[in-house]
Amino acid sequence: MSPLIIKSDNFSTLTGKKAFYIFTDGPFLLGDWVVAYNNEVVIGSSEFQGYPFTLPLMGYDGALTQGYATYNSDITVNIHRNGGVIEYTDTMLPTWQSTKIFSIE
């Protein structure tokens, strides 16, 4: 397992600001770890186990969440597979907004 992976459960106690990207299609394979970043800060991750696939993304909510997403942050997503990293480029991802659920096809 990659040292960059932080299970999404760990984020829930750090921030009340959340968004969710729900993927209904994409390049993910069973067992991939999908990791979301705001710049170089990990703001969410989840293991792909099939579609629909939900990726929780955390936002800035005070000092403990420095570097997390803020309104209209551009989010990048990487796929961690078999010790390698693949940048997700299939679709344009929506900018981050708190309490939003985005469907990505």
What is this structure's SSE topology?
Blueprint: E1 18-23, E2 33-38, E3 41-47, E4 53-58, E5 75-81, E6 84-87, E7 101-104
Parallel strand pairs: 1-7
Antiparallel strand pairs: 1-4, 2-3, 2-5, 5-6
Compact overview of the structure:
The chain has no helices and 7 strands. It has 105 residues and is mostly beta strands. The chain has one domain (8-104): Immunoglobulin-like.
Describe the structure.
By secondary structure, the chain is mainly β. The chain contains no helices and seven strands. A hairpin with a 2-residue loop joins strand 2 and strand 3.
Continuous helix count: 0
Order of helices and strands: EEEEEEE
Radius of gyration: 13 Å
Describe the sheet with the most strands: 4 strands, antiparallel
- Tell me the distance between the termini: 27 Å
- What low-confidence regions span 5 or more consecutive residues with pLDDT below 50? 1-13
Strand order of the largest sheet: 3-2-5-6
CATH class: Mainly Beta
Q: How many distinct folded domains?
A: 1
- Secondary-structure-based class equals mainly beta
Approximately what portion of the residues adopt beta-strand conformation? 35-45%
CATH-derived topology: Immunoglobulin-like
Question: Which overall shape is indicated by the principal axes computed on the Cα atoms?
Answer: globular
CATH architecture: Sandwich
Number of strands: 7
Mean pLDDT: 85
Range of helix content: under 10%
